[in-house]
Fold these 4 entries.
Entry 1:
Amino acid sequence: MSEKEYILTLSCDDQPGIVATVTGRLADFGGNILESAQFGDRTTGRFFLRIRFACPGDKTKDAIRHALTPAVSRFGLQLNLYEADRLPRIIVMVSRFDHCFEHLLYQIRVGWLKAEIVAVVSNHEDARASAEAAGLPYHHWPVTKENKAEQEKRLQDLADSTGADLIVLARYMQVLSNSFSKAQFGRIINIHHSFLPSFKGANPYHQAYDRGVKSIGATAHYVTADLDEGPIIEQQTERVSHTLSADDLVAVGRDIETRVLAKAVKLHLERRVFLNGHRTVVFE
């Protein structure tokens, strides 16, 4: 009989018996655990678990959920179950700098990032050629103070109509409204061209240059109403020296940005990121 793979994620108050109970229920219907990671946060008292497992193909998603219902009730589990072979759908938003967008396209093309870009949204025309060359629908929606709410409504409608699982801000240089950010919390990832929380704002590399830093970096985080303060998913840095100009730092930084954003998107789409208050738990 053929097998089907699933990814199970859960969080709850930390208490004895969670892993034994859940894995025991999986074993009862022939589930074979392929990968497992867990973490108990002593500070918040929360427990997090991710399991990738295979089970006989005749076991439906609903049947698996039903089998786990007693565990959900007993431990108060916030449980999600995903089909591992389902290709997640993403909307990419970009402005004039398209290096992060191009890198996402490449990583999808070579199969490292398993996702489908269902739309590209931009407030400029600069990335249209790249999007259309890849066969992607391109939406040019300029944003002004007067039409911001209208454009965000169009974005929400687009996400709903395409069934998008995630919105990726690939150097999209517009601030989303508080209401939209709150409504989509945990479903929008931004790349900030700085190693947060230092050097916020529009020109972090020039700020870093002025301070004579010895390392620069980039931060991928979930978008919240507080600008550039959402839960951090991934960060990387690289050593630099006094010999580099501000423009040199920009060039180094762009390379880091592409890697950090792609890694964060991959972690999210593989269900490896758990929100833990203002922080994240990431099972790499």
Entry 2:
Amino acid sequence: MTRTVYVNGEYLPETEAKVSIFDRGFLMADGVYEVTSVLDGKLIDFAGHAKRLERSLTELDMAAPITTEELLEVHRELVRLNGIEEGMIYLQITRGAPEDRDFAFPDPAKVPSTIVLFTQNKPGLANSPAAEKGLKVISIEDIRWGRRDIKTVQLLYPSMGKMMAKKAGCDDAWMVEDGAVTEGTSNNAYIVKGGKIITRQLSNDILHGITRAAVLKFAEEAQMVVEERPFTIAEAQEADEAFITSASTFVMPVVEIDGKALGAGTPGPVAKRLREIYLDESRKAAV
């Protein structure tokens, strides 16, 4: 089935969708993106994603080609047109397509931003088998640029990290800088020790995860103790359990780090409970 996508104000069959070869997202990675999950045909954490999108655009001095209200309608229409019950919607905004390649930003009054959205149908997203067995991760050096809090399309190194993990027979990589874990290639990282949830504090060093914010809020409401600080791979390997969060994985247990099993080598109770709470509460608040 051919998907219907959204490109610069038009709903089009994916086979007819086109973006200029001069688009700065293609030439310069000069763009930002968001991924919003869909459960039961409704959007999960849409308000948080829209707010972070606005922040990313502001940080890069990039024009917003659409209002939040209009963006919500586009998301809903794509869900309807493509019959998405469980899946994701990918959104990308770039600085547009000037007449030629140049390092200098084009005048936003003359070159409009490019906006693209498409759906990904993922039946069984909430009941992923990976959540039952947990993930295996490796550690790699974090050599990304210094503004990881901006959700840009500069994803080459995280992609390389995913492939390093795959080559090692694992599922993902946790990045390490100055001896401490920053985050996963496409997710925020956590460990649990003595019932305490430990995760790196917000800064320019990590993405300000929308799922992260929701999960920590639910954890505190459930009387769980949360400590926001850096932790090392060695500390993580001695933890009782670990997990990641992201819009596409929700709360996903981690059972092995650099070849060392955590606890019994199976998903721990804190991660499993947080996944249950997140899915239940997010479904209730979905739009």
Entry 3:
Amino acid sequence: MLGAAHKPGAIPLRPLALGDMYDAAFRIIRFNPQATVGAAVLVTALTMALPVLVTTLLTFTTGVVIDESQDVTGTEEVLGVVGAFGSMLGGLVLLVVALGMVNGLVSLVVRAAAEGRRLSLGQAWAATLGKRWRLVGLTVLVNLGMLLYTGAYVTLWFVVVLVSDSVVVIVLWASFGTVAFGAGALWLWTRLYYLPAPALMLEDVGVLGAIGRGYRLTSGHFWRTLGIALLTLLIASIAGSVLSVPVGLLGQGVGLAWPEYAALGLVLGQAVSTVVSAAFVAPFSAAVASLQYVDLRMRKEGYDVELMSRAGVLES
């Protein structure tokens, strides 16, 4: 009975092992499909609708054609191609923000599951009231930070290549600079990017406060957090590719069979494959990240006692 009392929901209320996290992630997705898979599919489909609609319109107005045998030289054709793939890029940018919202929703679902409660999509969305714009701001800020970091590295590449006349210097920079950039990116991702969304949704903090909470929680647990995060990313990437590649190939096949619809086929194939991939990748990755947040708080702050109290275990 003691074991049952300490597991009122999807996870045991104690520090979690890797197996506990993955088992709980699948349980949470299985028993809360609307608020996990449903949320991911909904936001992905809405954001991917933009490039599909734009490309469809351009295909039947400007005649967007991607074919080696035809030169795209006319103003309308050039604008059509630029518009089609520009809308795809815009859709992907919106997708990043939308998936940030999914991360927030899933963190609420994870906490409810830990307490033995199930949330529908409507309930999870209602629970985000008052924090939606902060979540959008957090998503934009952390992604902008990673983008600026990458841009600084690329800029340094140009500076080294333009200034240095020595091949040895360029080779040394390519070797050590790339390693340093990768190490810095992993550090930023783990300490500042990975856990702020759950902190923002589950605590009374703002955007910068959530980033600070993620930084403090991973202190002393960097390598474990990074290892689980990388393994989860690998699993999600492989599963996402298995699900999405066949759809993407089908879109390319449309272009080969009907060149006049090549751009539409490519964009439509990419959009559908993104939706299919996100249906698994987004909720699984978000659930594991939220479970790592819960695990770190139980290890460092006795969060298991708070969860037991919320679940009514201590009163019983």
Entry 4:
Amino acid sequence: MPDSVLVHSPATLSNLGCGFDVLGLALEAPYDAVRVTLSATPGVRIQHLDPYNLPTDPAHNVAGVALLAMLQAAPDAVGFDVEITKGIKPGSGVGSSAASAVGAVVGANALLHNRFSKMELVDFAMEGEAVASGARHADNIAPAVFGGFTVVRAVTPAIDIVALQSPPLWVAVVHPQIEVKTSDSRKVLPTDVPLKLATRQWANVAGLVSGFLTADYDLIGRSLDDYIVEPARLPLIPGLAEARRRALAAGAIGGGISGSGPSIFMLNKTAATAQTVGTAMGEVFAELGIEFHVYVGPVATQGARVVSA
């Protein structure tokens, strides 16, 4: 086993409309590149090879905190040196913090002869997510570890992730270049939900999972509506309603806010439709004078993976 590995850790969609903090989906791109090196020097050292000026103190870095949690469970490992090149812009709403945390623990686990299970890796990486958002949640972490479509059934008292294969789907994501911090976007969420709305939301979660299991694209589209979280976050993302309207008119199955935003995702049956939908959404932000990036690609069949020593 080498003493250093390079991991590609994917962007992810979370919530998927109705599934707040529960549902997630892995993307083929973009991804973070994380090199982890086993070290005889105790502790964790972080270096960022990107322009985002993220903290390198391991106690305040998502990858560092995740690895410190792993070292508590594997003290014989002594230490790790980590180099992170972020392909996922922080604050983009496509799992930037989760990608770095997951990439670090997947790389470290490979160097430790894969002694930890995927559920345990989720647990370690969630410690990093708590640093980024103030909440120990797994809806981005789970698909980054498992790939495909994931359901976070529980995180306490034990982590319970249901990993499912996605039917063939192409995703168009538009990322307007405005920042929406996860911690800030959580502050606008309602603390009480009327039972009638909650019932409609539960029905959509059940419908969405069923749609993925049966490759029923129409059911997936009908079930992506969010009656609770997205309405509260709508004012944070200018152009959201119009981008959704044009995406659906261009043939998208459905979509919504990715994570806490500002990215907006749309699911599509084909690559060609996804390209058309991405262009249609981008035009909205061009008209608003907001810079943006568009990502188009398939759902990833696997999560973070070692690509080279």
